[in-house]
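User: For a benchmark we're assembling, each entry needs the component sequences followed by a predicted structure for the full assembly. Here are entry 17's components. Please fill in the structure.
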Amino acid sequence: MLTANDTDTSEELDLFTMVVLRRRFEAIIREMVNALFKSGRSGVLNTAMDFSCSLTDADFRSVSVALGLPVHVGAIELIPMAVKEKFGEAIRPGDCFVNNSAYHGNTHCGDFTLCVPVFMDDELVFYCIARAHFGDMGFPTPTTYGPDCRDVYQEGLKLPCLRIQRDYQDVTEVTDICRANIRSPEQFYGDYLACLAAVRTGEKRLKELCGKYGRDVVLGFLRKYQDYAETMCVEAIRKLPASSISRTVRYDSMLADYLDGIPLTAKLTIEPDAGEIHVDLTDNVDNLPLGINMSESTVLATCRMNVLGQLGSDIPRCAGSFKRVKVKMREGSAIGKPKFPAATSSATTHLCHLLGSHIQALFAELIDGTGSAYGTIGLPGSSSVVSGDDFRYDGRRFVNQVIMGYWGGPALARHDGWLTYGSVSSQGILWQSSVEVVEQQQPILVEALSIREDGGGAGRHQGAPGAYCVFASRDNPVTFSLGAAARQFPPLGVRGGEAGAATQVSMRRKDGSEIELPSTGDVVIQPGEALVSHGPGGGGYGSPLERDPARVLRDYREGWISRSRLEETYGVVLTGQDGIDTVDAPATAARRKEMGAA
Amino acid sequence: MAYEIAVDVGGTFTDLVIKSDAGMVKGVKSPTTPGNIIDGTINAVARAAEALGLSLREVMGDCRKFAFGTTTATNAVLEGKGARTGLLCTRGHRDVLLIREGGKDDTYNVEVDYPGPYIPRRLTVEIDERIDAEGGVVKPLDEAQARRAIRELLDRKVDAIAVALIWSVANSVHEERLAALIEEMAPGLPYSLSHKVSPSIREYRRTSATALDASLKPIVNEAVRTLSGRLAAEGFKGVLTLVTSSGGQTSPQDVQAKPIYLCFSGPSAAPESGRRFARLENIEGGNIVTVDMGGTSFDVSIVTGWEIPTHRDGVIAGHSFGVPSVEVLTIGAGGGSLARVDAGGFVHTGPESAGSRPGPACYGRGGIRATVTDANVVRGYLNPETFAAGTMTLDAEAARTVLRRDVAEPLGVEIDEAAELVCVTCDQSMVGAIEEITIKRGIDPREYVMVAGGAAAGLHAVAIARELDIAEVIVPRFAGVLSAFGILTSNVQNQYGRSVFTRSDAFDFDAVNRNLAELKAEAEAYLARMGVEGQRRCLEFTAEARYQGQVWQLTLPLQTDRFADAGDVAAMVEDFHRLHERLYNVRSAADVVEIIEINVKAIGLVPEITLSQSERGNGEPRPSGGRSAFFRDAGRIENVPVYQGEALRAGHVVEGPALIEEPLTAIVVPPGAVATVSEYGNYRIRT
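Assistant: Structure for entry 17:
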């Protein structure tokens, strides 16, 4: 608790300074984000904003603000920890370290993470970190997800915590290896410079801050700030009932060992007296011969961020509050720490989406009014990586991830699902691509992009629908690298809510007929053909029979749901006059009673 | 005697500034009349006339120009009171207004509903047609189906139609054809076409702008008709102009044709005001942060090198409006912002506000929670007896009670410290807003001068400036009517644009020059129509340009209105490299530069305004009394000198700690700061 009676005598820090320094740290991170956004060259950076900036002190205690992707910032301390472990006393001012290795604390290999030490008076006091999802990392095929990769050797370039700058100059051996392995090396180098601009901006501003307020005051603030976050977290946990729940859900699988789906089990225990929440993931399958294995970083971040998500938006997401979320995982498990050489290129998406949703759903099942249903899982066909040659520019190569129709937010206790959710890893932060920009950058035609009728899971609150999206090739073939899921096991509802509509991916042939496509892998769409994607919807929260009939009618009139869903799922009876539908309240009540009894 | 009048209709007050040919300039405030802004406006003119010893009719009859900033459009959007509007869109793209562009303001706050589309799906009808990115017709317009679609909207009783098709900016033929069909089937029905409203790529922004524009047409037509009618009835025979989102003023006819440009009319003139005061005071460099702090909100805008930057990211009630606008950042911080202490012991202020009803606890109107104004009463900065020109007496004891209960006791601190913490927290929110608008543009606020207006700004301006290391704050003589002053002094201005796709390695001279010539003719005709004399005309051509492969454009000023040869293109490319380097610190010398739009700003320059000089003061200013006040670094000081602003004269110097009381605001000069009254009666404070 931050009060004037605080007896921390190590430094004098009044409440005014606390208020001011809190704002200073927010401003520094904001400025880092801005530096990266403005100079990023690839679409995932400058359009989707698929990057995050944070910082820690020398003891790896993190500070972040609500600007980054939850899965990016939830376990950022692993990055400077890897630097310290590997370089120890050899860390010097002007160094910069690069890391994309899930075996060295990174999220997945598509995330390119830079970390610089910040020195004051010859002492290392901070680390600044920027993490960005790059468009390419030198995979055999042009993608950075690779859900089908069997092991790390199919996942392109590995940067296992290397020094990429010394004395503020590039270590060209490292940048040359990157350029030699990554497609479109110019775009890579531009994006690297953007990340570098972010961490160097942070370094400069932190030094100025220490210069203005004094290093000890700034460090004292950080210590108190962590105490503050911890207090906020404990106070919120104390309001919850002591309880525990363990559940298993399943994930789509083609593996012979898991024809009934890959099980994912989590045990959630709330201990209000201790002010702790435990997530036990030890009872999970061994590493799979697939890229969907999670990494230590994404397991930790997903658990911490989704637990804190239930405790209030005003609790700072930092080391102090993370301390109160205890995560147990097993090395060698797909939902845990990977065991070399397990592939982890899809560690921020597929199983990660299911785990994050699962934690929220466990809260919902334990305590009505908290948590959420399951949100979208995997990447819909409409958010594939697209590549090929562009006939409009003399066959120029293009590789880009389109972020389109990445929808299907889960229903919450008091709200319908957020449409442009972009999965539990981003929770609405990702930007969606513009149809016109996509058509200008790639030789494809977006024939349709709209919500799927009845796509969201029914419930007292309804899940957001997924997207119906059609991409037609124009004058040359286009390759789509698919990373879909939620076909066999669509996002579930909670507390009586129904599941969202399942994923579909198919190809429309020249004659108009459609054939189903596998969820993952590369597909080439020839001129005259089209990729047809139905993205998954979020699950519903609570019984559909409890949904406000006026909202059901509105959804029907607006084309979100069909007449049959209105009648058969929601039990609403309409009566019409002058062609205008209104809810027949008594008949609706009677019908709902009957349905509830059945 | 001829007059010019400028009016800014706000939510609570209608501000008016009147200027005579003799150099007299005067500002008045009068309550806004809800539901009928014109009565409030006429009341304000009557009040000004009274102050000049004239009748309303005399002033109106002699008024040459009446410039009007109105929240008509802004409020219609904010309150969802636009006309019932239908949308015609491309087959397959019915959800453009629903999808928007993604992103979320506060990641961690899950207690929010997903926002609905500006035009509901049931009033959105798809048209069988398709244009591609190069302007080619993939699928011709199906006229029979289009007629059925329009009929469907008419049957649903729409009062306006928005037409926004994919790639209409690359080829407008289908939108033009739909316009003809609408005119044929529903003569006189207002409609808007996306390639005309906002000729830029990105379907969401263009569609949203078009939807807003169409929905505003019936309302703005009516408002303009009523306004001109009423002004005429009061004897006005001069020229009426309206202030647009870009801060300039233009004719009612132009606004009726594109009412979207009326978004933010009023606040959009604040940076102009900051610029004029900075010029008057001979500030070097022309870098100004203008802030306006009232009861519920805090507005920030900037001027850099005497230029008022505009952007196209403007959002109103969550809807993008796409057309160029002055960037004004508004946050929920003001006198009414509520204070609370969280479980971990941090103080928060706002964005929840007690507003003016019930208002702060000290208003005695039923407010029961501590606000920033209550904290300022406790600090001793506000005089309870003379608040709001003496129209209200503040209950200082009520302020102390709520502050003690809501802040001091939970934190275990003295009440003075609690009040200071509340104000520091609020100051920090405002500092954050200024940083957001400056950092985003790569600007260092330390190189800026702050111009502070609004009733509450004088209480916080120096503290905010100090936090940002801003050395000087100007609190203008017209601080209470800041935007109205900006309206009075703003240029006549309108913008015209064309989509043109070309690239530096295959420059389409014909298309570019043809469009430039057309824009030039359009701009000249506009300035002639507005009665702007030749030497006051100014045309600024710009291109929306980017490196090939980039998705965001930069606005590149063009040095020529005709590209004669490759040399001109090379010069344009070099200008782009420089611009990119200035903003992002890198240039890609080998990259091709693409142009996707060409625009012209037609400007009719308004002469520099001169304010009458204030009388020079003789000797030291004399305080009217003293009051006990609390300052963070100095603690509580008894008998802080209090000066009456009306008694101060040019050249007078007030050293902090001191309080200066003005009828509508109070200015705090903390210890260490020095305020000087300038020759124009503005306060210049060295922080």
